What does this fold into?
Amino acid sequence: MRLIGGFLHLDGQAADPARLDAMAAAMTAPGLRPRIERWIDGPVALLVLDFGPPATHSAGNPPQHEAGLILAADLRLDEPDTALGQAGLAALLQAQGVAGLGRLAGDFAFAAWNPQRQTLLCARDGFGVRPLFFADRPGAFFAFASLPRGLHATGLVARQVEPAFLVDEFLLLPSEPERSLFKGVERLAPGGWLELGLDLGKPARRGWHWRPDPARAGTCRIGAAEAAAELSRLVQAAVQRRLPGAGPVAAHLSGGLDSSAIAILAARALQPAGRDLLAYSAVPAAFGAYRFGGDGPYIAPVLRQQPGITWQAVRVEKPADFVLPAMDQDQILPVDQSFGEGRILADAAAAGAQMLLSGWGGDEGCSFSRRGVLAEALLTGRWGYLATELRALGSAQAAWGDLAPHLLPDTVQALIRRLAGRPPIPPGLAEISADLLLNQHVAGRSLRRPALPATAKGIRLALISGPGLPRRAEQWSLLAARHGMAVSFPLLDRQLVEFALSLPSALFVRQGWSRRVFRDAMADVLPEALRWKPGKADLVVEGPVYVAAERHLLADRLAALRQHQPVAGFFNLDAMAAWLQALPPAERLAQTIDSGQGDWPAIEKAGGLLRAFRIIAYLEQHG
It folds into this structure.
């Protein structure tokens, strides 16, 4: 794991080493002792923090390669042309410049200073797995860092939270990939590059080195068996190349198809060397008589089948800390061990793991479900396939539920529901939750998420290209940085994603089974009970119950916040208090979650309150 940073004074001012030292200190979490590499030459300063084992540390400064480039790089590069790591990357950049970036695959963020041309080139991998933030003040300076706190520590960038970004976070609305939580700080977009130099007459150049190609979506003419065989090969290769050469490896194990396949494949690859896989499952804690559902029962078959997995369940142990946690200063996420990811990363790091593998990204790519598949078949005239799959659904109501959301506007669906005497379409989470914000924060803002395309091909392309994948990947990476660890996502492997996007949509739904191509690909990997499990469950479901259980603690907190201006100027505290008071007892919410029936609007309101209190905790601690 590495973190990088640096700055370039565009007016030619000499770089101050103290700024670089401040950046390094800010990005080093308590208890960590990274190897620090610095390089300063006139107006430019580069920094690398290496958290890997001592044997992996380079000595002294970021290396100046034979190509003449100085690299500050956080990278894990894939085949074929960059297997030599930083030296291969430097040679590629020297020979081809930004035109060569499209050949890069892997997880990476880097800055390359060219002393001859006096230019700085920054780039980030296609899914934003490795973070990179920057502040650009034309004619003054350009600064970059893996973590926003590194930028703020230099004194070049004032730390100011952006209220509009907080609103979008609270309402779960998508935002542009370049936006960040802080004023004056941008993200380098996933798959993007930026180049600038000391020529004050030229602004920074920006571009893309990789984005999913819409022209390739659904164009691969391949049978089901061939698709499964190639998908199996690509998944196994993606897991293999993300395994470090020594030490333990950690992985999520939710009991779903994606994480279970990755955990098994990683354990198999590690076993010949006698290395164990540390697997972690976020398992809901029992609440009274209610134990909640989820994929928990599917974890046991994985552990029975695959030796070499050291397993640990992660549960909420202190509900009070869960609803009012310690927050990360760079994002709206908890960092203490009341939050499952904090527990997992702390334990894995203590065991010596440098890498955490996650199944994130499968739903959008190689294990895509069924959204829009039958609608696409209807629109493209695949009548035989459509008839077969509609029969497999088993009922006209199920067929309507599968087709209508993709073919009919909301207004038409609402009219049909009214004429049929059915309840209206419930409002979305953003519309419900907006009542907790002061009017000035939602006035004139559209609270509806953009509609997904009608066809599965369009939906797959939108999901792979959208902001959700890189935002979640970045969130995990920022949390892992606090423990000197890296997180990687085998199912976001570029070759794998491009192949999955090229597959015909009909391969993902066959004989009534969604995610069919992935199920077939994992025939020799997943236990049969898991491979053919119906549906998909969310393990982390108990949050609303803890809000109701801790209502008195939260009510007291609200009363104390009346004088806290950042909070009182953002939330409608009266509405929050009314929502909190109106919540059903925690036992009733637990019963609703356990049975799948009951007061779901109350569950959604409790979830909105949980998000609100986490933003409140952030504003109190870091606002």
DSSP finds 25 helices and 16 strands in the chain. The chain has a mean pLDDT of 90. The chain has three domains: 2-208, 214-366+456-531, 428-451+542-622. The longest strand covers residues 106-114.
